[in-house]
Design a protein that fits this description.
Jelly Rolls; single chain; globular; five-stranded antiparallel β-sheet; mainly beta; 10 strands
């Protein structure tokens, strides 16, 4: 088993505000183990579309947003060798490929565990994109394993 890291999210998901784009470092692959995403306002009947894609070859991991430091689940682990962008624009494939590997519709209080985990090799990326949330501010956390 690799090292486990978490990346919190806070924002209003939209086309120009993708919750997570996770780019593996040059020396290690990674796995998206799961994530949660819910409305800060509490209970809601709103449904959201969730699309998880992998990006390979030449791609752009989006622009804007912020690049938080992944938190270590084990304090003895070194810093993560991957980068994360939250609330940025959607990634584009360039001359590489962007393949949808998971698609679902869930209540806005969604917990998604990837089974099996979604895996990419070094220098590839995973994108978690959601449909419009009608202006609902959301919070969540992605759980990532670095191999």
């Amino acid at each position: 088993m690799g090292r486990i890291y978490t990346v919190p999210y806070a924002g209003t998901p939209a086309a120009a505000a993708v919750p997570w784009v996770i780019t593996a470092g040059s020396g290690r692959g990674l796995r998206l183990l799961g994530f949660n995403l819910e409305s800060e306002a509490g209970e809601t009947d709103q449904q959201i579309a969730i699309v998880i894609s992998t990006l390979t070859g030449s791609f752009t991991a989006g622009t804007g947003g912020t690049t938080p430091t992944p938190a270590k689940a084990d304090t003895d682990d070194p810093a993560a060798d991957f980068a994360v962008r939250i609330n940025g624009t959607a990634p584009t494939a360039g001359t590489g490929a962007k393949d949808t590997v998971f698609r679902t519709a869930q209540p806005l209080r969604a917990v998604v565990f990837a089974d099996p985990p979604i895996t990419v090799l070094a220098a590839q990326a995973i994108s978690v994109e959601v449909g419009e949330t009608a202006g609902s501010a959301c919070v969540g956390t992605a759980v990532i394993e670095e191999m």
